[in-house]
Amino acid sequence: MVEESPIDMESPIDMDELTASLDRGWDLLGRGELLAARVSAERVLELEPENPEGHTLLGAIVAADGDAEEALELFRHALEVDPEYVDAMIYAADVAVHPLRQYALALQYLDEAAEIATEEDQLDLGLLRAEAQIGLGELEHARRAVERLPPPPYADPANLLRLGRVCVDLEQYERAKDVLQQASEHPGTRIDALYFLGMVRDIDGDLAGAQQCFLEVHAAEDTQQAPSWAVSAEDFAALLEQALARLPGELGGQLRAAPRFFRAMPPVELVVEGLDPRVPVLFAGRPAGVVQAEPTGGPGNGRRARRKIEAPPQPLLTAIFVYQRNVERFAGGAEGLGEELFRALVDESAVFFALSSEETERLLGGPDDGAPSA
Fold it and tell me: Where exactly are the structural domains of the chain?
């Protein structure tokens, strides 16, 4: 009797399990249950190692867990398996923009996706294109991308938030205000929408309205737990020292000489006084060109009057405050912490020491100028 050869194909049961694992993985990811979602994604790849959606799902999970570089590799692998898998292109472009800041790479993926994308994909593609072009400083191109977007309402409130942020960057404040107000009405986007709405109100001169937004943002974020990928306080302090060591010349010397203090978040007292609740680094002391206060009204009066300084004084840095949760928020993952700390130090230096835009760009983008002086 001749035995029949088994048919070399997946059984319907395996296909049912594969589909169920994909659906379960995306659902768990949407609920933020990353460990359980990873189990489902890995099961998909056990059943079909070259499944493009499985690699895309795992990449989305890895990105949510803070490893953007690994996520990008997984999206690339999905596209090697299926070069026309639009979802992988969109996810790759998204992670290239946030948090990797590889804007030209993002535009490459978006250009490829645009040739084969469906109508349903146009909103994601348009928002990502505008974000990448803003990152490259191509603001007029970004404005045209926004003009081509379908108008709200959107099924996903996260897209309202993204459009609001883009409008803030493009200084389209009235449109931003309207869109962000809509986004603030949804629980999943409320806090981020209030933060950017606070920015717009501050620009409009509505200081009370801005403070109301920022205080709610601070209250919500002050109770949040650290991300799963957060590093220890000791490792975070070491990353700060490495970032300080990259700053050249007299600027680097002044920053390294200042005492450093670490907090999870800025204190609410400073937020009440107008501090951005998401500021990652704050310098204390006397910044360049500050309007100083001096006692007036005689001994024991206690009142202070502000006087205008004709010539800006020499800046005096007395302390550096670093807020770890806010640095983590902008970094998006452990791999980006060091670079985000460096960028935050440069941005705060630009304000405190009144650096020119050319000096700031040189510090951010130029090579190190040898060993910094102490």
Answer: 151-221, 233-292+304-365
Element (H or E) spanning 272, and its range?
Answer: helix 268-272
C-alpha pair distances (Å), 350 with each of 277, 283, 374: 19, 11, 19
Instruction: Say what the pTM is.
Output: 0.81
Mean pLDDT rounded to a whole number for the chain: 89
| CATH topology classification for 151-221 | 1.25.40
Give me the DSSP letters along 65-134: TT-HHHHHHHHHHHHHH-TT-HHHHHHHHHHHHTTT--HHHHHHHHHHHHTT--GGGHHHHHHHHHHHHH
As a whole number of angstroms, the distance between CA 356 and CA 367 comes to: 18
Measure the CA–CA gap between 345 and 339, rounded to whole angstroms: 10
Would you tell me the crossing angle of helices 190-203 and 157-169 to the nearest 10 degrees?
20
Cα–Cα nearest to 127, from 86, 171, 87, 97: 97
The pLDDT tens digits of the residues spanning 275-313 come to: 999 999 999 999 987 555 444 444 444 444 445 445 567
CA atoms within 13 A on the CB side of 297: 9
Assigned token pair, 112: 């490829």
Which CATH number among 3.40.190.10, 3.30.2010.20, 3.10.280.10, 3.30.420.10 corresponds to the domain 233-292+304-365? 3.30.2010.20
Q: What are the residues whose beta carbons fall under 8 Å from the beta carbon of 4, sequence distance 6 or more?
A: none
CA 132 to chain CA centroid, Å, is 13
Considering only CA atoms, which of 163, 169, 199, 168 is closest in space to residue 182?
163
User: What are the b/e assignments for 334-359, b being 16+ CB within 10 Å?
Assistant: bbbbbbbbbbbbbbbbbebbebeeeb
The answer to whether the beta carbons of residues 18 and 48 sit under 8 Å apart is yes
Note whether 79 and 89 are within 8 A (CB): yes
Phi/psi for 263 (5° steps) reads -140, 160
